[in-house]
Amino acid sequence: MTAVTGLRAEEAARLLAMDGPNTLPQVQTDPRWRRFAAEFTHFFALLLWVAAALAFVAGMPQLGVAVIVVVIINGVFAFAQEARAERAASKLRAMLPAHVMVRRDGRPMKVEAAQVVRGDVVLLTAGDRIPGDLEFSVAEACTVDESMLSGESEPVAKHPGDVGYGGTFLVNGNAEALVTATGRRTRLADIASLTAEARPPQSPLHKELRRVVRIISAVALSFGGLFFAVSLLAGTSWRDAFLFAVGVSVALIPEGLLPTVTLSLAMGAQRMAGRNALVRHLEAVETLGSTTFICTDKTGTLTQNRMSAVEVWTPDGMVRLRGEGYTPTAEIIGGEAAVQRARRLARAARAASRGRAVLQKGQWSADGDPMEAALDALARRLADAQDLDDDQVQFRWTFDPVRRRESVAVGSELLVKGAPENVLPLCVPSTDLRTCSSALEDMAGRGLRVLAVAERTLPGTGLVERWPDEPGQYEQHLTLLGLVGLHDPPRESVAEALQKARMAGIKVAMVTGDHPTTAAAIAAEIGLLRPDRTVVEGKDLPDDGHLLGALLDHDGAVISRVSPEQKLRVARALQLRGHVLAMTGDGVNDGPALQEADIGVAMGASGTDVAREAADLVLLDDDFATIIAAVEQGRATYANIRRFLTYHLTDNVAELTPFVVWALSGGNFPLALGVMQILFLDIGTDLLPALALGSERAGPRILQRPPERRHLMDSALMIRVFAILGPVEAVCEMAAFTVTLWLAGWRPGFPFPDVGVLAAASGAAFTTVVLAQWANAFACRSESVPPWRLGWATNRLLLWAVAVELLALIAFLFIGPVAAMLGHAPPTVAGLLTGLLAIPAVLFADYLYKRIRHRHRGAVV
Ligand SMILES: Nc1ncnc2c1ncn2[C@@H]1O[C@H](COP(=O)(O)OP(=O)(O)OP(=O)(O)O)[C@@H](O)[C@H]1O
User: Fold this and answer.
1) Considering only CA atoms, which residue is closest to atom 27 of ligand 1?
2) Mean pLDDT confidence for 81-96
3) 349 CA distance to ligand 1 centroid (A)?
4) What is the CATH number of the domain that holds 509?
5) What residues does the Cation-transporting P-type ATPase N-terminal domain cover (predicted)?
6) How far apart, in Å, do the first and last CA atoms of the chain sit?
7) Which structural domain range is residue 499 located in?
8) How far is the CA of 405 from the centre of ligand 1 (A)?
9) What is residue 71's predicted lDDT score, i.e. its pLDDT?
10) For the chain, how many structural domains are there in total?
11) Whose CA is nearest to atom 25 of ligand 1?
12) CA separation for the pair 672, 362 (Å, rounded)
């Protein structure tokens, strides 16, 4: 019968070929041609088209053509960058396929969710995403979150015969179900196509960038208008006035900025993926960089999640297991009576678990929950193999983080394992109960995770037809069997990662479901808990958000026995304090806290589907140190965006200055750069080095400064551009121009020199700007360190970029027709020498600025 044995593999393959993979139809994004067209029809592009058209009308065809070339190059460049960013993002998505347990050929096996077909029997457990529309055949204390389909936030109870929908989540219990529809035939597919139109909300970075672009454009257009007016007043012809206006506006508009940012975020995301951190949307890269607080759970993130049961306390005494790692041959130390009791306890604990230990090369490894696998290993070590039969369980109330226990009905018995606080109160009072509490404190004090195991006989259970979803009526009058102590070694990388977080000014708190004493011991072992601090328990957290925030707002806070709802309150309270919060979660009910946090972090290896889908960042290796690595990369990416913004804007100052000088002189000082030259500067010098700066690697000290959430265009950046780098470039440029004119005998007040002299002077100005930008590219690599300390060759891409820039300069000067179109000629020796001075001038000014700023702020980047 299909429902029991599942499909045969070939049948599944046939159905897969027939129905197609179990994926939702691609959300209708704009077709490529339309996205390509969009690069030529956005606001700036339209402005430039109008400018080009006016240029033709005004009888300046070269200008018209040049503007069109700018629009085309910018559009193609932006499209290519966005396509690259998109490819990177989809590659990241593909790195995290969802898996499902199915039964095929009578055996449970894990397959990719996309491979599930109609007729498959799927085995689901709390936290799983339901892979298609299905009908439940087994449903034990099962609830499903259907909010994404129905909007109903309360989980819905499911019983055998009920239907479930693809895309919803199993919140509680476990189930088996027969898949009835997959992929585009599911109910979700219908709804998804309805909602495909909805656009995601804009991220802070996106808003910030729009702000920057809007400011610069407003400035550009106002300057353009101003120059138009001034030139007319100065008696210039309409034609020339228009030329100026276009030149000024085109020079200042940062057409290439947005795509460069997107690409830089995509590269950041790719580098994070290389370090086992997958971001689920690009903007998270930047938010990660400004993280100020990390709430991390313990098991698996700070510890290795390689559990072994090392101690069993029973009323008859203690049993210890000792062995290298925890081997199947671990030595059993304890009295005969205690070992007998421990055996019984181990069998009960194993029956109340689904995780199993698999023997590989003389060591146990976990299949399923590592803690439950450790209990299985314990049972196998203590009991006879034939006593461990899996098929007697009649009903299972699976673990959930609110009840903190798991119960099973086996034969006429109820077996319960769980957190001692949640099991001991259900036991009949006895002297054993009193003695166990000191054993519990002792075990937990050594960092062991402690579980209590209990049992009772259920009268007449063979007759139960339908077990209740809530086991409350059975979970009473239990007899305590004892306690198990499980050891889970801390990860080796954690101590160093905590150090780094501390240096980076990021506070770290442990938020765990475990016992306070266990939490304190582990936190002390890894150097998180400070000696003067104590552990707070979830139930003692104040209700008031402000009080809660104040209580937790310090490095090394440890909060134990936290419920998912308390986790959400912790997230809100810390954000109320102004923190940019990263919070980890792997459980079924962690979704809301992960969504609330600025960066929700889920576990890729051990977490649930629910947590992964709510998260912004998925740790492929579950390691705390990976979060710190991702923060580092986030900071590096933000620094890169600032780098090329600085570079772009400096160029703008140099391009604008000739117009300002000309206007201020009332048209008596010749114009050093023409509109065509500016267009060529924008394309010839800006594009490639900006890209190269966007790919700069993180500096070694990026984690040695406190986190800051500053505007992209903050005062430091403005001062550097508009008071230091920009003016120095501009002065050099105007000097090269003036020296050339001066040596040719021209003086202010004289009539303009002849065209040849003007062309050579303008060529000198042009050359100077390229050379200055050449130095500027290196200066922009750091906000605090001069380029020679970074090593000139450490950004290979930049070397290529400046080499191309130099070749472009030579071409623009020496290829006759190009030079003629630009209206300049190769510079004279004096012009060139003056221009060359721009290189040391920019580097020196940058060096002085960095020194002074460094001394004042002690800042390092
Ligand atoms: N499968 C299980 N069966 C029974 N009890 C369990 C199970 N898993 C955990 N517990 C108990 O519930 C407590 C809370 O577990 P939970 O999984 O909520 O903690 P957590 O938040 O994952 O902890 P951590 O921060 O260590 O990852 C544990 O300390 C343990 O006592």
Assistant:
1) 299
2) 71
3) 14
4) 3.40.50.1000
5) 1-60
6) 66
7) 278-302+491-622
8) 8
9) 82
10) 4
11) 512
12) 80
Which of these, 48, 84, 47, lies nearest to 69 by C-alpha position?
48
Task: Name the pTM for this structure.
Answer: 0.82
**Within this chain, do residues 775 and 812 fall inside the same structural domain, yes or no?**
yes
Tokens read off for 538: 């979830």
- Rounded CA separation 781/785 (Å): 8
The confidence score (pLDDT) of residue 708 equals 72
User: Which residue's C-alpha comes closest to atom 12 of ligand 1?
Assistant: 404
The predicted pLDDT at position 719 comes to 87
Number of the ligand 1 atom closest to the C-alpha atom of 372: 1
237 and 292 inside one domain: no
Q: Is the pLDDT of residue 440 over 90?
A: yes
Residue to substitute in 512, 526, 589 for testing ligand 1 pocket (most ligand atoms within 8 angstroms of CB): 512
CATH for 143:
2.70.150.10
Is the Cβ atom of 624 under 6 angstroms away from ligand 1? no
In ligand 1, the atom with minimum distance to the C-alpha of 450 is 31
Assess whether pLDDT exceeds 60 at residue 200. Answer: no
Residues 6 or more apart whose Cβ sits within 8 Å of residue 316: 335, 337, 338, 340, 341
297 is catalytic: yes
Mean pLDDT of the chain: 84
Q: Which of 442, 469, 485 is the last residue of a domain?
A: 485
Segment among 184-188, 450-454, 487-491, 709-713 with least mean pLDDT:
709-713
Report pLDDT for 521.
93
Same domain, residue pair 506 and 413: no
DSSP letter at 357 equals E
Q: What are the distances in angstroms from CA 499 to CA 47, 503, 506, 524, 844?
A: 52, 6, 10, 14, 36
Structure tokens at 67: 């503007």
Q: How far is CA 450 from the centre of its chain?
A: 34
pLDDT value of position 21? 87
130 lies in the same domain as 168: yes
Residue 736 CB less than 6 A away from ligand 1 = no
Give me the residue label for tokens 């020496």. 814
The reply to whether 728 and 833 lie within a common domain is: yes
Q: What is the pLDDT of residue 426?
A: 94
Q: Is the pLDDT reported for residue 861 higher than 50?
A: no
Q: Are residues 91 and 229 in the same domain?
A: no
ipTM over 0.90: yes
Q: Do residues 329 and 290 both lie within one domain?
A: no
Together in a domain, 805 and 850: yes
> How many whole angstroms from 404 Cα to the centroid of ligand 1?
7
* Domain of residue 367, CATH code: 3.40.1110.10
Phi, psi of 181 (to 5 degrees): -155, 145
Positive or negative, the CA dihedral 608, 613, 619, 620 is positive
Interatomic CA distance for residues 170 and 101, integer angstroms? 14
CA-nearest residue for atom 2, ligand 1, is 399
Distance from the alpha carbon of residue 544 to the mean position of ligand 1, in angstroms: 27
The finding on whether 372 has its CB within 6 A of some atom of ligand 1 is yes
pLDDT band at residue 230 using 50, 70 and 90 as cut-offs: confident
Q: pLDDT tens-digit profile of 5-19?
A: 788 888 999 998 888
* pLDDT tens track for 731-743: 999 999 999 988 8
Task: Please identify which of the residues 128, 297, 400, 616 carries the catalytic annotation.
Answer: 297
Measured in Å, residue 402 CA sits from the centre of ligand 1 at 10
What is the reported pLDDT for 319? 92
Kindly report the number of other CB atoms within 10 A of residue 27's CB atom. 10
Q: What span, in angstroms and rounded, lies between the C-alpha atoms of 677 and 651?
A: 13
Which range has highest mean pLDDT (47-61, 201-215, 804-818)?
804-818
Distance of alpha carbon 528 from alpha carbon 569, whole angstroms: 22
Is residue 404 in contact with ligand 1, taking CB distance under 6 Å?
yes
Where residue 229 sits, what CATH number does that domain have? 1.20.1110.10
Of 664 and 556, the one with more pLDDT? 556
Residues sharing a CB contact under 8 Å with residue 196, sequence separation 6 or more, in sequence order: 27, 28
Last residue of a domain, one of 587, 622, 657: 622
